[in-house]
Fold this protein.
Amino acid sequence: MPYVEISGLCRKYSDGVSLKDISLRLEKGEIYTLMGPSGSGKTSLLRNISGLDTPEDGKVIVDGVDVTDLPTSKRSVGMIFQDLALFPHMTVYDNIAYGLQARREEGQEISRRVNELASKLRIEGLLKRYPSQVSGGQRQRVALARSVAAVPSLLLLDEPLSSLDQQLRADVRSEIKSFARELELTMIYVTHDHHEGLYMADTAGAIFDGRIEKSARPEELFTHPGTEKMAVFFGYNVISGGKHRIAFFPSDFEFSAKRADLGGTVTSAGFEGEFYRIHVLTDSGEKVQLTTPEKEWMPKTGEHVNLRLKRVEELH
């Protein structure tokens, strides 16, 4: 049996968001990332798994226990919210200890657990400070320590890095993944950033309009998106291809001296640091973007180019 099983979960909301027959299976220690745009149902799903909301249909089973109708306090499920929800009037120590104190653990055990987690997350020097006195990355570590202090069977993370700048996001996500591996945490990690989602995942899924389109290993999900919504979300160009829509990634092309798979006129081009980005209006009137590290020759605005596509995905 899977360690976590969500089957046929459905829930309608008054704002029009609905969860439609959501089913997931996770093994113990697995990190599942769920990606999708704003309003796609990511946070709503976590709320139904955690017990903050109750599904109208379906089941949530964690470590062999059906928790579908249990209150949040009775589920062994931890959650890190987008805004972290740290208690501003409590020290870092008391924030981490909160769940253990609520369970009326012995003071010595609480102290041992808090100090152990603080050491693992390198925040042991911050325990007497308040959340407002530590950096954004440090607050992320405090929230993580608080969420795992009571040893949840399942940890849910809702856009936990959205408030951090790009470089800090990369650093903290690496730390979270390493920490999860060390403690063998089972996690569902929600994000709108597909780079972050793919990096974190053992298994990844994409959700649109309350329905999970596909779940697979991250390499499979990215390389074979399958649907137009998935392809666009991962940054593919989607164009007409005879009977079907087809997709190709911006870097999967070569310039050709003669007519090739695709022709078009350059509408703009610019250097972005790691590569040049070229915007092209195809001969059939569709817009595509290309990326290339090429420095020796770059087409000019208004110039016609021929492209040979290296890899094309047929969509359904």
